[in-house]
Amino acid sequence: MRINVDLNRCQAYAQCAFLAPDVFQLHGEEALLYQPNVDEARREDVLRAAAACPVQAILVDRVDLERGERR
């Protein structure tokens, strides 16, 4: 699964960091750090984090890396 965060849209509310702290971390008060490629086992937490983002800055894309297909 691939994650992309629009850092121009992100307002550092940190809801994602609360819901998936091993994927999203707030660095300081405003900078969001995140893992762009996440194992499918973390899918539910990442989807909850994306849904909780007040400005909808998180895009989640499932990628089949063996075939190079996006779903």
UniProtKB/TrEMBL annotation:
It holds the Pfam family Fer4_13. Keywords: 3Fe-4S, Electron transport, Iron, Iron-sulfur, Metal-binding, Transport. It comes from the Bacteria. Its cofactor is [3Fe-4S] cluster. The keyword Electron transport applies. This is Ferredoxin. It comes from Saccharopolyspora oryzae. The lineage of its organism: Bacteria, Bacillati, Actinomycetota, Actinomycetes, Pseudonocardiales.
